[in-house]
Every structure is written in C-alpha cells, then in structure tokens.
Design goal:
single chain; alpha/beta; eight-stranded parallel sheet; six-stranded antiparallel barrel; 10 helices; binds pyridoxal-5'-phosphate
Length: about 375
C-alpha cells in the first residue's frame, strides 16, 4: 500500500499509535491470563476487523459487538461473537441468522419477548444460538433487576429448542470514578451478583459464563466475585476518561485526533479544525471535551461542529495558524464512530490505514 506522509494527511484525522496499541493489548492479555478470566473485548470501540484479529492473536477468546453490522464485519475474523445487545426486530434477527455458519453466535437479552423472537429465528434458520441473560448491576440501563426474573428467563432459554443457555452478563457502566475509589462499588456488584448466582444455582441453572467488565474497572475485574469473563472495549486505545480515572497513564493513550490550528484571532484561545464532528461532545466531571496529548494543561474548552476551542489560560504556548496538534478526546468510541479511517502511526511515520468498517447500520 502506498502510504502518505503524516504531514500530507488532511485534518482532522484519527491516529493510532501502533506501539502503544500493542503494549496495551499485551498488558490486558497478561492481566486476564494472570487472573484466569476469559476475554471477549468489545469491538465497538475500534470497529476494525484487523484490530479484532490482533486481539484474538493476543489471547481473546472471541469478540463482543453491539450491532448486526458489527457482527457481520467481525465475523470475517472471529469464530465466537457475542452480541451484547438485545436483538429485537425481524430484520436484525435475519441478519444475525445469516452470519457464516462457522460463527458461534451468542446474544444477551433481558425479556421473554426478545427470547421468543430469537427462538423463532434460530428454529427457522436451523442454527443454535447461545443466550446470556442480562442482569442489572446498578447502571439502570437494561438487565433484569431481580433474581426471580433472571431464573425465569434462564429457564425459558434452557428449555428452548435452538437456544443454548450459557449464563449471564452485565455491564457495570455506573462505575466511573477513579480506580482507587472503586472498592465499595465493586463490592456492591459482587454482593448483588452473588444473589443472582445463588438463585440460579438453586434453580439448577448455574451459569457457565458470568460475563461483565468495563474499561474503568478493568484492572480490578478480579475483585468481582463469580465473574469469569470480561468485555472491555476502550482498553486498546484509552481516552481522556481513562486518564482521568487513572486506568492508564498519558504514555498509554494510543488514540488521538490530529487537528490543525485554524485561528488565533480571539484572545486566550486557539481554534482547531476538530469540533464535535471529530471529537464528539461527551462530558466529563473535569469539564472540557479533550486534552492535547503532549500538553495536558491545554484543554478543548468548547466545541462547535467544526471548531474546537483550545484554552490557553494555563500555558505559555502560543500556537501559530497552521500548527498541528494531537487531541485525546474524552470518549474514544464515539470519536472513532465519526471517522472513515484510522491511521496507524509510529511517531511521525504512517504505518498503515484501517477503514472503520463497523460504522453505520446497513448490511456490509
Ligand atoms: C454491554 C457492554 N459491554 C462492554 C462494554 C465495553 O466497556 P468499555 O466501554 O468500558 O470499555 C460496553 C460499553 O459501553 C457495553 O455497553
């Protein structure tokens, strides 16, 4: 492939530092090995099959996806695909059933309605689909809030032809405080999870898989009693939220958006060509929408669609129009979702280009 020089790439452009990416993969792989955890990384973060393949080589047991399109794209490289999202609707079910037969598909759900639809689709297509019953662990988004409800759905799944009841899953998305302060919240997840596991075991429905995990809680996953699989997504790249929570150091953030300073006319700020359409407008308790990778004192204070306002009040640095900067966004997944491509870089050298194939909703 003929690769451009970094200077010639039009901004805004998403960059992935390949050396940091590799170290992040190895560190996550070592952690799950050391703690005997199954690792099924969520690929919605990068949406790139080649990166999923790298995660599988590094020791992942399979991949997690959020949409039928991601399932289709990742099926090219993975044999084990978990859709961590309730598959409701005929079109989505049809696309899932049309995945290559070599793919072991499993699905998370929290309703008898979704289960009935999946059972019918599995029966009609003649394939067996794994089922994980989704539990509510404090985020209050989806998942069954009571052990009785979980037992009833697990029983329904285990008695359904074409479905294979494999266990339970949850996402602890409410735990978004610094790593050091997570102890009580993790203990509460263990306590709560324990009540579900006891009830399921008593009903003869002991889950083989207990799938959880997130990037904020990644390095403390082993503290969740009973969990045997994790599905972190952000981990290979990290972002400003991960930095703020102490999940990674500045030298581990592999993703940034390359941007050009386009205006310094208004005092106290420099304006870059990466706005909400490149960085995404996700908030963090510390304020701002991103930070410069090599100047953490410079924050993206405000965003409009095509403009990012860099706050220069805590720096003596005065950029010129035309200067380029690398911005670490608050939340990497939503920034990646706005890109057509990711550029693999090593320092100033462009090493490759990945199309963000899992974006969008339509069939591949
Ligand atoms: C169901 C589910 N599993 C796993 C993940 C990945 O976790 P993280 O984004 O914290 O890396 C997410 C992220 O939103 C999720 O919704």
């Amino acid at each position: 492939m003929n690769l451009p020089s970094l200077d010639s790439i039009e901004t805004p452009a998403a960059l992935v530092d390949v050396d940091r990416l590799e170290l992040n993969l190895q560190k996550a792989a070592a952690y799950v090995r050391d703690h005997g955890l199954r690792w099924r990384p969520h690929t919605k973060t990068h949406k790139v099959p080649a990166l999923a393949a790298r995660q599988l080589e590094a020791g992942a047991a399979g991949v997690t996806v959020a949409t039928p399109r991601e399932a289709e794209v990742m099926s090219a490289v993975a044999e084990d695909v978990l859709l961590a999202y309730s598959p409701v609707g005929a079109s989505k079910l049809a696309r899932l059933m049309a995945l290559p037969r070599r793919v072991r598909l499993s699905v998370a759900l929290d309703s008898h309605e979704a289960l009935a639809g999946l059972r019918e689709a599995a029966r009609a297509s003649g394939r067996t689909v794994g089922v994980l019953v989704e539990l509510e662990m404090g985020m209050r988004r989806v998942g069954l809030p009571s052990p009785e409800g979980a037992v009833a759905l697990a029983r329904d799944a285990s008695e359904s032809e074409g479905l294979d009841y494999q266990g339970v899953m949850f996402y602890p998305g409410h735990i978004r405080m610094p790593l050091k302060e997570q102890g009580p919240a993790l203990a509460e997840v263990s306590r709560r999870l324990g009540t579900f596991l006891e009830a399921l075991e008593a009903a003869g429905l002991k889950p083989g898989l207990v799938s959880g995990g997130s990037t904020p809680t990644l390095w403390r996953s082993h503290e969740v009693v009973g969990m045997n699989e994790i599905r972190p997504g952000i981990t290979p790249f990290f972002d400003r939220a991960s930095l703020w929570m102490g999940v990674c150091g500045a030298e581990e953030v592999a993703y940034s958006v390359l941007a050009t300073v386009v205006s310094t006319a208004v005092s106290g700020q420099a304006v870059i060509d990466a706005g909400s359409k490149a960085l995404a407008k996700e908030e963090l308790p510390v304020g701002g929408y991103g930070v410069l990778g090599d100047r953490p004192e410079v924050e993206v204070r405000a965003l409009s669609e095509e403009h990012g306002m860099l706050d220069l009040s805590r720096t003596t640095w005065r950029p010129r129009v035309g200067e380029r900067v690398r911005v670490v966004p608050n939340h990497v997944c939503v920034s990646v979702n706005l890109q057509d491509e990711l550029w693999a870089v090593r320092g100033e050298q462009v090493m490759g280009r990945w199309e963000v194939m899992g974006r969008g909703r339509g069939p591949v």
